Amino acid sequence: MVGQADAPDPPDARTGSSANDASDFLALLRLWEYLREAQKSLSGNGFRRLCRDEFLHFLRIREWQDLHGQLKQICRELGLHRNDVAASPERVHTAALTGLLSHVGLADVRNEPKHPVGRRGRPVLREYLGARGTRFAINPGSGLARIQPPLIVAAEITETTRLWARTVAAITASQIEEVAQHLLNRQYSEPHWSARSGSVFAYETVSLYGVPVIAGRQVPYAKINPVAAREIFIRSALVEGQWRTRHRFFTHNADIRAEAEAMEDRTRRRDLVVDDQTIFDFYDARIPAEIVSAAHFNSWWRHTDEEQRDRLSMTLDDLLVGSAGVDHAAFPSTWQVGDHSLLVSYLFEPGHERDGVSVTIPVGTLNQIPAAPFSWQVPGFRAELATELIRTLPKPLRKTFAPAPDIARRALDWLSKHPGSHAESLPDALARALRALTGEAVGSEDWRLDQVPGHYRVTFVVRSTGADKEELALGKDLADLQTRLHSRVQNALDTAATNIIRSGARTWDFGRIAGQVELPSTGQRVVGYPALVDEGSSVGLTICQTPERQLATHTFGLRRLVFLNTPDPTRWVVAHLSNADKLALGTGPYPSVSDLLEDGRLASVGELIRRDESGPVRDPESFSALCDRVRVDNADLMQRITRLAAEISDRNGTVLEALPRVRRRSEAAAADIAEQVGNLVFSGFLGATPYEHLTELPRYLKAAQVRIETLLSSATTRDAAGFAVINRVEDAYADLCEQTPPGRLPSFVEEVGWLIEELRVSLFAQALRTRVTVSEKRVLAAIDGARSQLRNQTAR
Fold first, then answer.
1. What pTM value is reported for the model?
2. d(Cα 192, Cα 204) in Å, to the nearest integer?
């Protein structure tokens, strides 16, 4: 047809098109306008020839014109007036749609072809869902065959090889809603609360003769089902708290609910707080029936009285089941440890790393917090913890304390009447109570804390002292946390003590050094322990974390400062050495003899300070008097230490020289001996080794020589047996050392190391005799004792 032939090629169906292109109806309209204009300018015969030349049936055109005239006449008779302005294409389609509602089709996207264009550029026809379940396609002769819009209306649907839609136009769902309100079927699903708009919405599906012309449109639900909308509003906005509002009752109720839920976490129960239905009933009874959205509620709130508003505020009685409650003394919110008030939180979530009781400790005070108080747990869990501890005992003991819950209660009652020291842990106190009640002795090694359920052991959460309160670490072993965070604690102390710490001093210009100072901090009492620190060529003033660390650090710092402020007797010492001693000194582990002599002088000063009984030196007067006393005996003691160093160097050289031959007999024994003498004799060993043990080094090295001679002269079976014993105690000692804080080992831990050297003498050179009675069992017992002492230091 002319109208279609003159029209531009339609765009691809997936990209859409203009209203003028997406319609066969408009093609007919353009043909009508074309013929009207042609008829005005041509004679009757000329118009006939035009129709013939353009393949138009003249009689059909006349019938069309007659029908148009009849319609105009009917309109005049009915008083209907024609448009003053030409109708838009959309209005033309809407008018046509009025009589063609059963010919509406919706593209079936579920069966959408993957490739819209088939072979030879021909489009793959979409299938449309029509009224009452029919399915059809756009006739290929239609101008919309290539466009294939998602929603169409057809003038006719005919069946040949299949159902075809002819004379088609693209339409919209809004046009259908405009003319077919009385025929549409509406269904609603998934009503839900929208916090953003403060109202309830649902998804609407609109169907015409079974064709879902609109699917999944979100519409307000209050006008559709106000009762259900009100219930959703109350449940979602008020019960579940999904409402962004500033009403004071809303905030108050959220706080009360959090407090009630925290009670469940504290008591590890899930039956204290009422269910959501009870809370819904609370609001349902107080909010008018017409309230279905946030806007309705806000309007009602503005006009209601104060008494009505207050009825929406909950109390704990509204949220707790019956008379349920929590003894706040049994489940405190803070834990007072000395001068420190630590926050306590509770979580009831099995499997979570914080399940149970958690205590928050600022890193700046971590060094001041003992472990013993926390071994008792909060009072509300103490009986359960005591019961679980009894259940971890070895079976013979556990049978004595049955039933465990009753024995635990009796023990705690007895302890309430016979309290111990503040540093006593619950396992130690429980052992004391059990012995008093039953006569059975329970040792510290009998308790198996690792078998106690995790939620009965306190979790320690260490946070930074800055504004961000960053979480640094958490765990159930306070001593382990103190070791892991040693550097962070020291940094916090150094930051707080910037006006106290200093370095580079060579004389006493510190004034009086206090034994303990309180440092400025944010909200927490931070305590540090000032001490002199050895910087090598000078001395500084630092802040230590514990009194034990302070004592060790101050001792070495004081030694260096006395060293710097007393005369140097090195020339006199060297002048009184024999040539053999001088030669032996040259074979020592030091880089040079002068380094050895300097270290020997330092060892001499340290030993004289240790022997001094005048008391702690923390002021310039005491320091000056100490220097005078050291000056008197320093030369003689340094000479003895230097001669001892010569002997040690000589024996050490003999042992090292024999190691290659030992290695050919036993690689393991050679490695063990090398490690032993390396730990005894090294660059700096004179200053690092206490004098009482320094004098024993020749005997230890002589024992190593005897062991070597035995290995070289006989079978290695005997040595292997002793070596196995040494391996066992060395492994246990290594575990002990790993548990100590960073820095120099505590003296009681070092003593265990020297006891192992005595054990070596007893195993490999019994003829040299030991300084103390020693055996593998005694060494392991000493290791256990040192481990307990470490725990006690943490507990204090």
1. 0.60
2. 12
